[in-house]
Amino acid sequence: MSENTAAGAPASGETSVEVDAATAATSDALLSVEGLERHFDGVRAVDGVSFTVAPHEVVSIIGPNGSGKTTTLNLVSGALRAGAGTISLEGRRIDHADPARIAEEGVARTFQNGRVFATLSVRDNVEVGLHSTLTASRPFRRLSRLFLLRWIPLLGELFIAIIGTPASRREQKQIDARVESEVQRFEARLGPRRDDPAYSLSYANRRRTEIARALALQPKLLLLDEPTAGMNQSETAEVLEQLLQLKADGQAILLVEHKLDLVMTVSDRVIVMDGGRIIAEGAPQTVRHDPAVIEAYLGRRRGLGGATDDVVASAAPADETPAATTGDAATGEDEA
Ligand SMILES: Nc1ncnc2c1ncn2[C@@H]1O[C@H](COP(=O)(O)OP(=O)(O)OP(=O)(O)O)[C@@H](O)[C@H]1O
Ligand SMILES: [Mg+2]
């Protein structure tokens, strides 16, 4: 699918993070999204969306297939540019910044279809997430944004990688410790596989690796796009436990998820999208009984109250990859 360049979007390469004084003064939100729009060839994927995420809050976005959930996350993480609207993190505008800069500002994400580097080990996959934070090993990294001066940081990084400096060695030790602590978060699953290449992992373990990579950044805001897609019931329950632990630790999360049991358990607030717009928003139990939500999300046949198995089944996205068809899960080796 082609991606349009949004009308009015800044030229690519522009990476400013502006301080929005008005937003900073009036809002204590961690993330503030105002009037966000993104259209693709006439499809209003995101059509005037506004919401906030408070510090330490877990907010979920639910909605039918194609309602604009992933596009919203793509806009917040900088993977896509908005056609209109603003996105602010702690009052600082990030909607013109590139994804690396947004990650530096404290927004980390995982992807709906799972993205790991197949030939890298679990540890290296997690370490990749920390690249943007390196300072001693990347002393001229800010110059890499200036097209004509890109060669300076490249040569500098190459030199330091070959020769090493006391500061870069110290930094590498800190990185190793961070990576190790994230692998240990999933110790039972990833621990024995920390040196295995990602291609040999089960689907569920690849998703855990991706979450570990995002968390290694110690983000202010964690964006998760269907972290349990393709997972069976017990794997989903494990992810729920980990999300509840993150929530207890005060991690702010913007979660896109189809499994409503999980959403209702972990969320402080739920946003419901349909056709690129927010059609309902509120506490999980309120949203669950909202007639507009029942209509849009599940159709006329059934309601949200209580029939959770039906809900999960009907809410499952059409393109989910069954865990049992990929990697070590297929052999039964991993998730036993
Ligand atoms: N890169 C793109 N090019 C063209 N159309 C796109 C693109 N990305 C998304 N769309 C369209 O925008 C709409 C919203 O898509 P999006 O992926 O955000 O939905 P979603 O709510 O995440 O759906 P799902 O639950 O299936 O993941 C859909 O109609 C989709 O086809
Ligand atoms: Mg999606």
UniProtKB/TrEMBL annotation:
Tell me which domain of life the UniProt entry assigns to the organism this sequence originates from. Bacteria
Cross-referenced InterPro entries: AAA+_ATPase (IPR003593), ABC_AA/LPS_Transport (IPR051120), ABC_transporter-like_ATP-bd (IPR003439), BCA_ABC_TP_C (IPR032823), P-loop_NTPase (IPR027417)
**Can you name the source organism?**
Schumannella soli
Where is each ABC transporter domain found?
Answer: 31-300
Which residues fall in a compositionally biased region of kind Low complexity?
315-330
Please state what the protein is called. ABC transporter ATP-binding protein
| Pfam families xref list | ABC_tran, BCA_ABC_TP_C
- What's a BP term from Gene Ontology annotated to this protein? L-alanine transport
In terms of PANTHER family, this protein maps to: AMINO ACID ABC TRANSPORTER ATP-BINDING PROTEIN (PTHR45772:SF7), CONSERVED COMPONENT OF ABC TRANSPORTER FOR NATURAL AMINO ACIDS-RELATED (PTHR45772)
